[in-house]
Amino acid sequence: MMLKVSDVKQFLYCPRVVYFTYVMPVHRKVTRKMEYGKEEHLEIERLERRRGFRSYDLSEGERRYRTKLCSERLGVEGVLDMHIVCGSGCFPVEFKNTSRHPGLNHKYQLVCYAMLLEEQYGKPVRHGFLYLIPGKRVHVVEITPNARTFVRKTLDQIKMMIARESFPPAPRRPARCFECEYRNYCADVV
Ligand code: SF4
């Protein structure tokens, strides 16, 4: 089966979100926050088209937007917000609508995209960027061997959870449940 790159992000945030996507699909309300996120992405794209590359510490390059990527080998596909191609390589960029420090789930989602870009271009990706929309800050993410291994293991865990149809425990941080659109389906959380 093909997973989505966003499943890596969701699984690391709360594995039940992925369970509710594949094992026991339930109706998911489209929230105002989700709609707003789409509008923000389009606005950032518009602004990015007019900018140079200084915030990415690059002297030149070409931006490519919303690229569909797929790896049969990893069993995962997704649409990457943006990537930059230049003489020194290619670099994935994900836009995130958060003013906080990016979470590990965001980091490993980007690492997964980097692995797909490597397959697409046939050359290694050393680092990528999380663009934090509210503060217009760019956060560098190193694509290390350990990070790649972690992504592969996460994909295996997701596939195993789906194959066994095992309902995962709730995340240790109850705050994650407060704004979750699946809250009605998790009777054991506050
Ligand atoms: S309500 Fe909590 S446990 Fe249930 S899916 Fe959402 S984050 Fe996970």
TrEMBL record:
Q: Where is the DUF83 domain?
A: 5-187
InterPro entries per UniProt: Cas4_exonuclease, CRISPR-assoc_prot_Cas4, Dna2/Cas4_DUF83, PDDEXK-like_dom_sf
What is this enzyme's class at the first EC digit? hydrolase
Q: Name one GO biological process term.
A: defense response to virus
Going by the UniProt record, its keywords in alphabetical order are: Antiviral defense, Exonuclease, Hydrolase, Iron, Iron-sulfur, Manganese, Metal-binding, Nuclease
**Function as written in the Swiss-Prot or TrEMBL entry:** CRISPR (clustered regularly interspaced short palindromic repeat) is an adaptive immune system that provides protection against mobile genetic elements (viruses, transposable elements and conjugative plasmids). CRISPR clusters contain sequences complementary to antecedent mobile elements and target invading nucleic acids. CRISPR clusters are transcribed and processed into CRISPR RNA (crRNA).
**Record-given protein name:** CRISPR-associated exonuclease Cas4
Organism encoding this protein: Desulforudis audaxviator (strain MP104C)
Q: What does the organism's lineage look like at the top? A: Bacteria, Bacillati, Bacillota, Clostridia, Thermoanaerobacterales
